[in-house]
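PqqD family protein: structure tokens wanted.
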Amino acid sequence: MSGGPLRRVTPVDELDRDGERLVLLAGRVVHVHGLGPYVLDLLAEPTPLAALTQRLVEELGAPPGQDPGALVAAAVATLSAEGLVEEVSPGADGPAAGGPR
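Answer:
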């Protein structure tokens, strides 16, 4: 990712339970846990990584002895690899659509 704003991909469906989430994309299900559900909720609108990190620290607190920016970047990288988060291209309009990557 080149550092532009991020947004979640619109899933076909999803189920939240006990702090975890199952996300249905076209043809597959992704199990999301840890920071993942929080990140997806905050990326309903395009958001830069730094602002996402700040919002997560405000909501959850800073992790003792760990770099919140590195933890959020790792969570975003995992979600991106699963096809759940994408970088917003300049001038892109409309919601992202779930589908195979």
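The first strand starts at residue 6 and ends at 8. DSSP finds three helices and five strands in the chain.

Cheers.
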